[in-house]
Amino acid sequence: MQDLHSEHPNQLRIYQLNCNASNDAQLIMLNVLNPNDWDIIALQEPHIDFNGVTRTTPPWRVVYPPRHYIVPQETRSVMLVNKRLATNFWESLPVDSSDITAICFSGEFGHIRIFNIYNNCKHSWVLQRLKQFLLSPASVSTPADLSGDIWIGDFNRHEPMWEHPDNAHLFTWANIDAADCLIDLLADFGMDIALEPGIPTLEHFVSKALHRVDHVFCSHHLAPKFL
């Protein structure tokens, strides 16, 4: 995303990964990624160890959802923020869900909120929690210079709007109905698909088929700033 803040790099660079709770996958990611190339790492299903913390390396600050401090083993979303980003430039947001981590960046551009979301494939409770937060006084009272929102994560939904046509076998009535909750939420809050439709984001463990379950959505007026 371009032109975020004149005193910081002119791109906010976000890396997204579902670790499937694998310690090995998370450690490989941390060792492969160059901290000079990324500002935020958005993890879904991170590895949480027996002490109730996730794995990281010195260049990163971990942001947990507030519920992590109550039930750490239920955490399925964390964000790693590069320590080069001053802490007076961003703050975490109190979304009451183990599956959503949120932060708000502030600067000359106004305020941009980033939500990292893990949506269960069996229900849409987390989408309901997201909606509750967006309609809550804590969200509605956000400063008037809010520049927009970014929703990033594993949404576990199949729909012709974003899946490749080769995956037409996934367009069952059950899958379409499950996706409707997400589509309604996108419409209600004026969110666009930031990634080009049809680009796969998941290789199935067994079949090796390519699916689109991970997404980046953004407020309509932010879409032109995405690369």
Which keywords apply here?
single chain, 227 residues, alpha+beta, Deoxyribonuclease I, Chain A, six-stranded mixed sheet, four-stranded mixed sheet, 4 helices, 27% strand, globular, disordered N terminus
Report on this structure.
The chain starts with 13 loop residues before the first strand and ends in an 8-residue tail after the last strand. The protein has helices at about 25-30, 125-135, 135-140, 175-190; strands at about 15-20, 40-45, 60-65, 75-80, 90, 100-105, 110-120, 145-155, 190-195, 200-205, 210, 215-220. Helix content is about 20%, strand content about 25%. With about 230 residues, it is an alpha+beta fold. The strands form 3 sheets. It has a 6-stranded mixed sheet, with helices on one face. Strands 1-2-4-3 form a 4-stranded mixed sheet, with no helix packed on it. Strands 10-11 form a two-stranded antiparallel sheet. The protein is built from 4 helices and 12 strands. Strand 5 (about 90) and strand 6 form a beta hairpin. It has one domain (about 15-225): 4-Layer Sandwich (Deoxyribonuclease I, Chain A), CATH 3.60.10. The protein is globular and about 45 Å long. Mean pLDDT is about 90; it is low at about 1-10.
